Amino acid sequence: MAEQDGVAVARLSVPNLGQALKFTASSMMSAVIDLGLFWVLRQVLQLPEPYLIYVATVVARCTSGLINFGLNRIWSFGATDREEYGRTRDQAGRYATLFVGKMVASAIIVQALAHLPLPLEVTKALVDIALFFANYLVQRDWVYSRK
Question: What residues form DSSP beta bridges with 7?
């Protein structure tokens, strides 16, 4: 953060822009994996409808989350040096906390905004876009931060 006229101003440097673009790409890859695996599981699992949706959602989301953790740790943030960034187990614990927190926050905020005159899918998309930006900052500054 730089200060300009007494106001903190965030500046995106070229390396940070590259990091943000990698984070965006890894998020999109994870979304494709999540949706694709959800679709495949719905085709192959022989479960009654309510259980099928829950099982497919949990398996697909957890799988895409594990892949996203690895992509961001190695590629987006380059946080692999144990001396500089700490243990993978600690990063994974912080990521899991964020992962669950983001799901809960999304559900609560979407529910709180459900009264708006918008389709619920649009409301969810807008909430998740806002959470995407918060998610980037939390991963950069907490999950994969230097010691």
Answer: 4
Domain-ending residue, one of 78, 111, 137: 78
State the residue range of the domain holding 31.
1-78
What pTM was estimated for this model as a whole?
Answer: 0.82
What are the average pLDDT values for consecutive 10-residue runs of the chain, which has 147 residues?
58 73 96 94 91 92 96 95 91 97 93 93 93 95 91
Domain boundary among 47, 78, 109: 78
- Beta strand spans in the chain (E): 2-4, 7-9
Cα radius of gyration rounded to whole Å, the chain = 18
Cβ neighbours for 53, distance < 8 A, ≥ 6 positions apart: 42
Q: What is the CA 37 to chain-centroid distance, rounded?
A: 17
Spatial CB neighbours of 63, under 8 Å, sequence gap ≥ 6: 33, 34, 37
Tokens of 49: 């409808």
Count how many Cα atoms sit within 13 Å of the Cα of residue 95 in the half-sphere of its side chain: 21
